[in-house]
């Protein structure tokens, strides 16, 4: 370094004392070089070392997150405001911040956020100065002296200066006020002049004399002269940089943009000529270069070149092989392309800006570069408005709402999401409307006073106290919370199927998550019982959600098991009561009731008795049948229904007088008996013998009754085209009409 030793030592002493310093100077004075030298001297002063940051187009919040990411190992994690401030307060490092763009109260807030850090900041004179209470040391950096300027010119020219060149250098120092950048560019002019002199194909002018030195006006702003000696690929790179407002694309993209496989070396050529300077992780045109090149016609095709860059970055940013961090490194060039297309009024440029914003914004969000994410979304929203693309405009409103939700600005998130839902409602976009309403529900859940506010931490950016509870401004800490669940239809109790069925307790088998999720949700009573805590108090956060979900799953599983059991019973009864077409003729037919003799293997058609000497047969339910004459109509219960039987015997039959079966009624679905139109014509005969008790069968029935009350019930079945039949229920239950 030339004539910077004194400033270097002073800055190192101030940093060693724990003071923060702001170095101010115009562009081209060597501020970045001086800061790098001081940073190398202070590497062992702080426990967290030296942290180098770039303030170029960065907000105070962005810089705090950059400081957090540089010190803490937290990949893919972005803390909230409260956690960020708490973590940054514990950082003890020397922070070298180059090209800061804010001052005043914003700078004071930034410095107060990291009280254990010593800051070394550089800024231009047009940046607002810090406040008087900031305790920030100011160091103004001026130009070089005439001697130092001559030495720097010799270093840049890579040879000693001739007498005329030394006189020219003195005039250049007066014209440029000793800015080191001007001497670097003047050295490139001298190298260009030497190259022309040594070229064998170019004859020396004026009888072997060297080319004259450029005028001072051109030497003080030599961008046009330097660009004339560059290669074609380097000049194309300059045109693309001018189209982007001074931002240079990465050298890896230059071959695709320029159409030259060797264009990646153009950036080094521009850097050697002093036409570009470093700006963080990328390069931009040096101060004054873009304006001089635009005046010489390098900006004639800015709109077309910006469109080409936008198309290239749209394809590149949307490719799945490109990591979000790589896209975030090109954020300045991408955002500059969007701004250039929005400013253009040519057809298709606004549409290209929309496509670029939709491709780059998700990558910026994934890379946690939320400042670039917000600018990209706002550029895309403006481009969509200019292009008349309502669907894309609704998308960008939704993205702004999600960004505001992530940063804790709930009012802004609600406004953006409502605007998005309104636009999508006009377009009848159901999926987009549903997505917007879901995001709006998240905003409502995080709002202070919401029932779900405790499950998401501090709502609205609030900080958590020492007790672990979050105090909301809109609700008291002991306010009762009610969870509302959807209503369900009331179902008929299963006990109604069987008259004497009683409730029993049974083990619930394990069910899969799929089957449990497909069951109807629990009624409100079950939901309110599940939402209560163990002690009857107010459950909080995720513990309340887990308790409610577990109990609801148990209720749903029990309902599912019971439903499966009922359906299985119905299917089994329907399968066993089928009508076989190949059945014998003596099976049940219309006009007969089903009876079964002890010596028969199947059900036969019961014939009415014609005399008194025939022994009566037991009926279906085990009740005795009284003999009647064939002509006598039935005055008892209709077909298919019998009186409830008494206590069952071990064999499943009951004792009592027998009675003959009655013919089925015309309406088998009628429960009560129908009166006949004519009185009976005869009197039923009285049996002369004592009724005999039916002999129990030796084979056990399909369902063995027990002395206890049955816990199962039979469901009615109906068959089309067959005679109405009656099924025998379990012991203690009456018959059920089919």
TrEMBL record:
Low complexity compositional bias, start-end: 469-479, 621-657, 683-738
UniProt cross-references to InterPro entries, sorted A to Z: P-loop_NTPase (IPR027417)
Compositional bias of kind Gly residues: 457-468
Biased composition (Basic and acidic residues): 584-602
Lineage: superkingdom: Bacteria
Gene3D superfamilies linked to this entry: P-loop containing nucleotide triphosphate hydrolases
Residue span of region Disordered: 457-479, 574-738
Protein name: ATPase AAA
Organism classification: Bacteria, Bacillati, Actinomycetota, Actinomycetes, Kitasatosporales
